[in-house]
């Protein structure tokens, strides 16, 4: 399906490090890249480095006063609570600006490669820091790299960008940046804000002309319900909106083993979502697709397998779920973390689901969540909310 794919990577991307006890530990991307390399996934893509985002690029999304505050924290290592740095979620550390700007630069490099035609698809697995606000760090995120990539594309003259966020947490920072901009369609599927940070992402948050879309799913939603909701909302909106480029965020903290959230997806269900978004990139955006990582806090069992599947999907050469993880990688995991690694690339689940076209069940909380979203935004796009 893919013509060319590029992975943006630099070992220095692991310098975004809030400390050994913080959930967002860089070992998760280190293990991901090691697994993708061990399985030969990286042999099927172009690899490219990146430069840190400059101040003018960061200022496409972030207030210049905030950028200067991050730089001061970066130089001193001392907190600045007015900038959101020095909290439990976002500890202050020396070098935080440089580490954050490099992640932002990696997503900008992915956007540039796709926009300029150097690659059809591009991915930054270290990115997806979707909670960062224009003037404050939030939810483990300092600079909002997906929003920066979108803002840069708009600066180049792109007229319509669609952003789909499948992280378990609402993509609040990206929504905030583009809430009143009808050129950007933001779709977030997440655990209900009634039970999870950041407490936003209700269906009634519809933005400019219905271009903010939120599917707030009940705690306990698994593969079949999540995929039912995805297919009931995302494809019809993308087809109607007709983006020039699709940008996606792939937090894998929707997994049942994730310690910070309450959805119940498997690696297999997540893999099915990646494949669906790949198809939609070709069906609705001429194949132009920029993907990022995101959340994911089961560092060994989930993140490396989920994002290796993502890189493989971006490459156009998906990995068979039955594939063993490989002895070399397993040994590396033991040496690096002391944990027991997974043996295969599957959780042994299937990704079957019932399509909403067969009718919805008003007694089902997942169907109620889906219909709340469809009723809120479908008429604003000229679509019938009823299945």
Task: Give your account of this protein's structure.
The chain is built from eleven helices and eight strands. It has an eight-stranded parallel sheet with strand order 2-1-3-8-7-4-5-6, sandwiched between helices. The protein has a single domain, classed as Arginase, Chain A (3-Layer(aba) Sandwich). The model has no long low-confidence stretch (mean pLDDT 97). Helix 1 (27-38) crosses helix 9. The longest helix is centred in the first third of the chain and has 20 residues, at 96-115. It has helices at 27-38, 55-58, 64-76, 96-115, 145-155, 172-178, 223-241, 267-284, 303-315, 327-337, 365-377, and strands spanning 5-8, 46-48, 121-124, 161-165, 184-191, 212-217, 245-249, 289-292. The chain is 36% helix and 10% strand. It is globular. The protein is an alpha/beta fold and 387 residues long.
Oligomeric state: single chain
Major sheet: size, sense and barrel closure? 8 strands, parallel
Number of domains: 1
**What is the share of helical residues?**
25-40%
* CATH top-level class: Alpha Beta
The chain-level mean pLDDT equals 97
Number of helices: 11
DSSP strand count: 8
Give the arrangement of secondary structure elements.
Layout lengths: L4 E4 L18 H12 L7 E3 L6 H4 L5 H13 L19 H20 L5 E4 L20 H11 L5 E5 L6 H7 L5 E8 L20 E6 L5 H19 L3 E5 L17 H18 L4 E4 L10 H13 L11 H11 L27 H13 L10
Parallel strand pairs: 1-2, 1-3, 3-8, 4-5, 4-7, 5-6, 7-8
Helix pairs in contact: 1-9, 1-10, 4-5, 7-8, 7-11, 8-9
């Amino acid at each position: 399906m893919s013509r060319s794919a590029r992975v943006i990577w630099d070992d220095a991307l692991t310098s975004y490090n809030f400390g050994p006890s913080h959930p967002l530990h860089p070992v998760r991307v280190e293990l991901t890249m090691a697994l993708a390399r061990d399985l030969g996934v990286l042999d099927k893509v172009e690899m490219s480095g990146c430069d840190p985002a400059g101040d003018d690029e960061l200022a496409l999304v972030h207030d210049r006063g905030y950028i200067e505050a991050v730089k001061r924290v970066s130089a001193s290592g001392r907190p600045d609570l007015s900038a959101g740095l020095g909290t439990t979620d976002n500890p202050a550390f020396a070098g935080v600006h440089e580490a954050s700007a490099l992640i932002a630069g990696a997503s900008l490099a992915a956007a540039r490669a796709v926009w300029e035609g150097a690659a059809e698809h591009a991915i930054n697995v270290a990115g997806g820091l979707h909670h960062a606000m224009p003037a404050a760090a939030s939810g483990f995120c300092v600079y909002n790299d997906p929003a920066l990539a979108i803002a840069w594309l708009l600066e180049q003259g792109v007229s319509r960008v669609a952003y789909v966020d499948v992280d378990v947490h609402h993509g609040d920072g990206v929504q905030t940046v583009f809430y009143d901009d009808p050129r950007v369609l933001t779709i977030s599927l997440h655990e209900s804000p009634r039970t999870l940070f950041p407490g936003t992402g209700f269906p009634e948050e519809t933005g400019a002309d219905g271009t903010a879309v939120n599917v707030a799913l009940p705690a306990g939603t698994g593969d079949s319900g999540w995929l039912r909701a995805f297919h009931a909302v995302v494809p019809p909106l993308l087809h109607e909106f007709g983006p020039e480029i699709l940008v996606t965020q792939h937090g894998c903290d929707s997994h049942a083993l994730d310690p910070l959230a309450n959805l119940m997806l498997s690696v297999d269900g997540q893999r099915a979502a990646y494949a669906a978004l790949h198809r939609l990139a070709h069906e609705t955006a001429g194949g132009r697709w920029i993907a990022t990582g995101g959340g994911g806090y089961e560092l060994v069992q989930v993140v490396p397998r989920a994002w290796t599947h993502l890189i493989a999907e971006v490459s156009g050469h998906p990995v068979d779920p039955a594939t063993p993880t490989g002895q070399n990688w397993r040994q590396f995991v033991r040496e690096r973390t002391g944990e027991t690694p997974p043996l295969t690339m599957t959780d042994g689940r299937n990704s079957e689901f019932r399509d909403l076209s067969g009718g919805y069940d008003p007694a089902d909380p997942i169907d109620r969540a889906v219909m709340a979203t469809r009723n809120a935004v479908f008429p604003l796009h000229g679509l019938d909310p009823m299945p």
